[in-house]
């Protein structure tokens, strides 16, 4: 993995299909603490607790979970990681995304980070990728 996950040395990641590069870093000083995801000129922010919460949730699953990435304005397919990232029953009580209008794509940008951290296994197909705990 490249980067230390700081603003000065962010993690350098690639989406599951390998089509887009992006960076992420922890901003512990934010309220609430955030993962900042920079995709081109777009900045997305997620609860920093998403790393541990998502890994824990995936450990409760018996098999692969589809990513189901979707923009905030589009519904997330039931049973996907994206749907869990918006579900009122998850540990943050709803959206992990913090920036209104840009709260989606949880299923696109979090799994590659968790894979790099050694917490999950991720498929790398052209589409319809899935993830599972290791």
Q: Radius of gyration in whole Å, from Cα?
A: 13 Å
Number of helices: 3
Q: Kindly state the percentage of residues in helix.
A: 10-25%
Shape: globular
Structural class: alpha+beta
List unreliable stretches of 5+ residues: none
Instruction: Tell me the quaternary state.
Output: single chain
How many beta-strand segments? 7
Query: What fraction of residues sit in β-strands?
Result: 15-25%
The major β-sheet equals:
4 strands, antiparallel
pLDDT averaged residue by residue: 96
Spatial arrangement of strands, main beta sheet: 1-2-3-4
Kindly, what is the distance between the CA atoms of the first and last residues, rounded to a whole number of angstroms?
17 Å
Helix and strand string, N-terminal first? EEEEHEHHEE
How is this structure best described in words?
This protein has helices at 50-59, 81-84, 106-116; strands spanning 11-14, 21-27, 34-39, 42-47, 65-66, 120-122, 130-133. The chain has 3 helices and 7 strands; from the N terminus they run ββββαβααββ. Helix content is 19%, strand content 24%. With 134 residues, the protein is an alpha+beta fold. β1 (11-14) and β2 (21-27) form a beta hairpin. 35% of the residues are buried.
What keyword list fits this structure?
134 residues; alpha+beta; 4-stranded antiparallel sheet; 3-stranded antiparallel sheet; globular
Summarize, please.
The chain is of the alpha+beta class and 134 residues long. The chain has helices at 50-59, 81-84, 106-116, and strands at residues 11-14, 21-27, 34-39, 42-47, 65-66, 120-122, 130-133.
